[in-house]
Amino acid sequence: MNSLPPPSVTAAVVSAPAAASQPLLTASKTRHILIRLGYLPLTAENYLGRNGQVQRQYTWNFVPPRALLALSRQDSWQDPWNPLVLGALYQFEHEHGLPVEPGKVGLRDLPVSVEMALLAARKPDPLPWTWVLVTKFPRPERIHVFVAGKGWVLQSDCNTGVLHGTPDGTWPVYARDEHTSMVGSFPIPVPARQVRLYDAAKAAGFHVAAIDFGRYHHHWVRYQPYDDPDIRWVNYFDRGRAVHFYPRAAYGFPQSAGCVELPRKAAQQAFAILHYGTPVTVAHSAPGPWNAPASAKGAAKPQGEKTIADLPSLHWTYRVVPQQSSPRSVHLALTPVALPAHAAALPDGTPRPAPQPQPDRVAAGSAGPGPAARAG
Description:
- This protein has 376 residues and is α+β, with helices and mostly antiparallel strands.
- The chain has helices at 7-15, 27-36, 66-72, 83-95, 112-120, 192-203, 264-273, 359-362, 371-375; strands at 42-48, 54-60, 130-135, 142-147, 151-157, 169-172, 175-189, 213-216, 219-238, 241-245, 260-262, 279-283, 314-320, 332-338.
- The longest helix has 13 residues, at 83-95.
- Mean pLDDT is 80; it is low at 1-19, 292-315, 339-349 and 354-376.
C-alpha cells in the first residue's frame, strides 16, 4: 500500500513556482540567422541615424520588381509579424521537419525546438525565394509568380472570392496538399426584400423551408453548403483560403468562396514553383508601378500567353447595357476605354510624356503629334 508523503513535503511541492524559461533567441537574432542561411535574401547594413544611434537598413540581394519594393516598405523588417520574415521562418521549419507555425508573438517566443534548430543550422535554403502577387484590377484578375534570380516565371487568369471574400494583404504559405477536400458554405447574394418577406412569413406562422440567411461583408446572403472532395494543388496561405485548381468555364473575375482559383495547367505549374513560406500578396491593383513578366530578365513568356505589357493602355468605366436594361432598372457593365497616347505608360511603368507641339504649327493654332505619339 502506497503511503502519502508528509504534509510539509506536499505543501512545498505545490507552492514551488515553476521556473520561467527565457527565450534563447530574440526576434533580431532569428532574423539574422534566416538572412545568413538565405531563407530571407536580404543584406543588412548599419548606418548612423540623425539621432546618433546606429540604424539597420535591409536591401534585397536581387533586382526586385517595383511591386515588391512597394510591399516591403509597408511593414517594418523589425515587425515580428512581418509576413515576408514569417515566410522565411515557415520555410526553415518545414526544411528541418518542424511544425510550421509562428511563435507566440510572430518571430518572438519561438518553441525551444525551433530555437535549437536555428542555432545549430548551417545548411542554406535549398529553394529559391518565391513570391506570389494576385491582382484584382484591372480585369481580368491575374496571378503572377516571381522567383528570385529568374524574374516573373508564371502568370495566369484567376478567380478571387465573391463579395470581397478574398481580402487584400500578404500571408505566407503554411500548408500544402496535392489533393484534398474542402467543405464550407458559399455566400449567395440575395436582396434585402427577400429576407424581410421570409421573416414576415415565418412570423405570420406560414410553413416555409429553412433558409440560412446572414450578413456577409455588408451584404445579405444565403449560405449554400458545399463539399468538394477533389481539390488539387492546394497552397494554404490565410486560414482556409488557398491557391488551388478549380474547374470553371472562365477565369478572371470573382467566383470563389475566398480562395484564389486557377486553371488546371497554371495550378499544376504554380504548385511546382511555390513552397512553404512563399508570401502570397492579394492586391486590389498592383501596388505601385511594376515590371511586367515579359520585361523581367530571364523570364520566359509562354507561347500564346499575353502579359500585362501586351495589353493596351485602358481605363475602366461603367456604361449602360441597353439590351439588359428596362425603364425600371438599369444594367451597368465595366467597359474598357483606350487612353490617349500621352496618358499611356511606357513599358517600364513610368508615365509617357505628353505630346509636344510642333514649332511650325504653333502659329497656326494647332499642335501636331509629339515624338511619343509618333512612336506609339
